[in-house]
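Would you mind writing out a protein's amino acid sequence and the numbers that encode its backbone to help me picture the idea?
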Amino acid sequence: MSAVASNPNLPSHSLANQIAEIEASLTRMQQRIGDVPVTEILISRLLINLGREMTQRLDTRLRPSGLMESEFRALVSLYSLPGSTGNPSDLCTDAGQSPANITRITDALAERELILRRPDEHDRRRWVLQVTPKGTALIKKMLPNMMNGARESYSEFSSAELKRLLTSLKTIAATIDRNSSIEAAASKQVS
């Protein structure tokens, strides 16, 4: 892989320049050490940087609503459940948040009256969450802008390219899951 030079026509903090600098650094490391998986590390760093940038862009789009991306994602995840009703553990999985973060997020959403929170009738240890009419209205107001942002981010890709990219990312996720399971099993054997 050849190093890509920074583009002086872009701001120094642009993603393209960040990736060019990371690639240059990895190439220098490879020259000094030898066996450095430059492509794999560059892909990993690119995914991390893209995730951060996309979150920042989503936060910017959401700023008029007063919500952060993680809060909106949890609200939409709850909205997508049957009856717009679920429990915090549903949101942990769907919104990709830890239990502690979901508690903080649902506190913020309940305080803004975007969701209702009540004890589960069948298990008082659990909470039932439900999107309020105010929450539904906010989702319907913000979702078109959010969807346009998603379309803009991938506008250079054909449908076939998007499907291949998604398949590749799912393969990376499955590989990480498999390796994590192997590492966890190995660490249990050591202890």
